């Protein structure tokens, strides 16, 4: 088994106003921290479109307060 470092809860900030989607360059709505320590930012469209796959690789997420990510429930269910 390979150990994974997980950032402390609450340490991940949502995307800044000037951050852009890593997929299409639209305004960022969701920031993910990956198990390997990297981060990705997605617009609302791509965050929800790829939610099932993103949940598999993310250890933590932070969303814009006005954005509801479809993967949020999946993230909370996968930690149980």
Please specify the SSE layout and strand pairing:
Elements: E1 30-34, E2 39-42, H1 44-49, H2 51-57, E3 58-63, H3 72-78
Antiparallel strand pairs: 1-2, 1-3
Percent helix, as a range, is 25-40%
Biggest sheet, in brief?
A: 3 strands, antiparallel
Could you say which structural class the secondary elements and strand pairing correspond to? Answer: alpha+beta
Give the low-confidence spans: 6-10
Termini gap: 19 Å
Beta-strand fraction estimate: 15-25%
Q: What sort of overall outline do the alpha carbons produce when their principal axes are compared? A: globular
H/E element string? EEHHEH
**Number of domains in the coordinates?**
1
Q: Can you count the beta strands?
A: 3
From the alpha carbons, calculate the radius of gyration and give it in angstroms: 12 Å
Q: Helix segment count?
A: 3
- Mean of pLDDT: 85
Instruction: For the largest sheet, list the strands in their spatial order.
Output: 2-1-3
Please provide a written account of the structure:
- This is DUF7455 domain-containing protein.
- Residues 17-64 form the DUF7455 domain.
- InterPro entries: DUF7455.
- It comes from Actinoplanes campanulatus.
- This protein is 25% helix and 19% strand.
- It has 80 residues and is α+β, with helices and mostly antiparallel strands.
- The chain has one domain (15-72).
């Amino acid at each position: 088994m390979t150990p994974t470092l997980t950032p402390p809860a609450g340490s991940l900030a949502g995307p800044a106003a000037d951050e852009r989607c890593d997929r299409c360059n639209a305004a960022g709505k969701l920031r993910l921290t990956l198990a390997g320590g990297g981060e990705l930012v997605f617009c609302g469209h791509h965050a929800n479109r790829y939610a099932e796959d993103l949940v598999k690789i993310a250890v933590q997420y932070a969303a814009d307060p006005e954005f509801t990510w479809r993967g949020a429930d999946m993230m909370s269910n996968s930690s149980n």
